[in-house]
């Protein structure tokens, strides 16, 4: 199976749906790097759609946990700072779940089960990547771990694919030094959402960029 890997969605439902039209579930595994929620207008619907896709295409979809999912989990379980998530789009996300009559705690439980990474013999995918500075990359509180890292990436001898740090030019970036792709292209910043198509052996085939739908963000509130 080939790989279709999607960057940070951040509540941009309409943009996400348009990008998924390029995914072929018969020949490709779709992997989403986390941060489905916060900042865009449709966080609840993005999570609901992901949950339904996983239920329908169990073997063809991989949803990874991002730092925004972790902040939401920590907030709802009263294990994190109450202001961290609320000040990073959490308040709007909570209101969006209420407006859509969706049980945020039910979906929080599902999000809490999401893995931090996916890999095969040639490719490894995570939200923020394996860093040169991480004490424990799988520690959800490690600032240089797989959820939070913004430090240089390790070259793992595999193609590494991450999101987390927006590429403000709207183009995914390949680093030869770390053999890695950053595919966060700032959907919530009214730029675009990106998916890259790789062969199972990690060979890059193409990037697909979908401009952010005007239905997904309040342009005057973009941050």
TrEMBL record:
Q: In this protein, which residues make up the domain named Serine/threonine specific protein phosphatases?
A: 64-69
Q: Name one GO molecular function term.
A: phosphatase activity
For the biological process aspect of GO, one term held by this record is: RNA decapping
Q: Which InterPro entries match?
A: Ap4A_hydrolase, Calcineurin-like_PHP, Ser/Thr-sp_prot-phosphatase
Q: Which CDD domains match?
A: MPP_PPP_family (cd00144)
Q: Which GO terms describe its cellular component?
A: cytoplasm
Q: Which residues form a coiled coil?
A: none
Q: What is this protein called?
A: Serine/threonine protein phosphatase
Organism, as annotated:
Arthrospiribacter ruber
From the broadest rank down, the organism's phylogenetic lineage runs: Bacteria, Pseudomonadati, Bacteroidota, Cytophagia, Cytophagales
């Amino acid at each position: 199976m080939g790989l279709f890997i999607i960057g940070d969605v951040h509540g941009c439902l309409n943009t996400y749906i348009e990008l998924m039209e390029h995914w072929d579930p018969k020949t490709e595994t779709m992997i989403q790097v986390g941060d489905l929620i916060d900042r865009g207008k449709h966080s609840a619907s993005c999570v609901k759609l992901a949950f339904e896709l996983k239920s329908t295409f169990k073997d063809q979809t991989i949803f990874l946990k991002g730092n925004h999912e972790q902040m939401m989990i920590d907030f709802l379980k009263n294990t994190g700072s109450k202001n961290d998530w609320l000040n990073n789009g959490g308040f709007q996300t909570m209101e969006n779940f209420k407006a859509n009559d969706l049980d945020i705690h039910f979906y929080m439980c599902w999000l809490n089960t999401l893995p931090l990474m996916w890999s095969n013999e040639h490719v490894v995918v995570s939200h923020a990547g394996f860093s040169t500075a991480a004490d424990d990359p799988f520690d959800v509180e490690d600032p240089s771990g797989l959820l939070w890292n913004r430090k240089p990436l390790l070259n793992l001898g595999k193609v590494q694919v991450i999101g987390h740090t927006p590429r403000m030019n709207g183009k995914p970036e390949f680093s030869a030094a770390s053999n890695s792709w950053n595919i966060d292209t700032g959907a919530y910043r009214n730029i675009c959402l990106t998916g890259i198509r790789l062969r199972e052996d990690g060979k890059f085939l193409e990037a697909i960029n979908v401009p952010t739908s005007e239905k997904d963000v309040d342009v005057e509130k973009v941050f």
